[in-house]
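User: Quick one: structure for sequence A, then sequence B.

Assistant: Sequence A:
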Amino acid sequence: MRKILEGLSRFQCVAFPEARELFARLASGQNPEALFLTCSDSRIVPELITQTKPGDLFICRNAGNIAPAWGETTGGVSATIEYAVMALGVRDIIVCGHSDCGAMKALLDPGPLARMPTVALWLRHAECARFVVEENYAHLGAQERLAMLIEQNVVAQLANLGTHPSVASKLHKGELGLHGWVYDIATGAVKAYDRTSGQFLPL
């Protein structure tokens, strides 16, 4: 906790004064460019990865960067999606998965989830991705299957986003773009989903 409090002190004494004008503008409202939906993993820092400033991204984080299909559950993720699209008018939604994802590891090896029933229930929203990998990539080694599952989960969540009425309407009018990314923690590389080829390509 001491490290966190020391960081807060540096923010208040150094970082905030240097960006005082920016925060003064943001104090009366926000106009983010995109909704960035990513994992809660502590190693993922959206503003660092995208080099954006406060106010640029509307961020939603949860275990496994999951966007439940509309109607499956009423909760914070669905509300965040709807608010970002309808109230804030974001032009893009980015679903960003990442390497070494603990949620995806748990899908491949669900044993530890016996002690975490809430996590197990949440990860059912990624079952589509797990089934795709199980049925089509069982021949791959453990690390390759994990990498494939991370990618397929991003694809599955993009499909789930399209079931939300607010998203579907904006997509139909060409007022919203959906993007799937996978961030590699070790190298900083980002791959983006290419709908034409069905592959993740370097961004």
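Sequence B:
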Amino acid sequence: YEFMREPHYRQLLDFFLRHRGKFETFLHEDPKDHHVDAQPFGTGDGVATRFQLLRYFVEGGFLEPIREPKGNPVITVDGAPLAAWVLEPGGVVAFNAPPPTGAGLAWTGDFRFRVRFDVDRAEFSEFAANLRELGTMEIVSVKK
């Protein structure tokens, strides 16, 4: 941050201290990367009822589990919305009955990332009355 007024400085410092630097994690919603539309996350086999939400960076490329969905995603089976499921902790969809063999599972919704600060100290400096600056404060993803 090039400059912060006193209330913003106190808010950021309070947030940093409450999470004890890099010790505790928190949820971050990336403004440019927080939503998927009709994202495939599995194929029914007639037996399995639990499936991890997933998302691709590039279709057919790197696949990432989504462990922190935000709100209630829309779940479809072969393109038809389905209401007979429960969202379990960690982004696992538990269907009331196994999806049919070969049925494509997809979801639409928002998600967040579990992150933590990458440092244990924040070096603010006051360069003018009630104006502070902070060089960098990085966050890193936490994979479970």
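The longest helix spans residues 6-18. The chain has a mean pLDDT of 87.

User: Thanks, that's what I needed.
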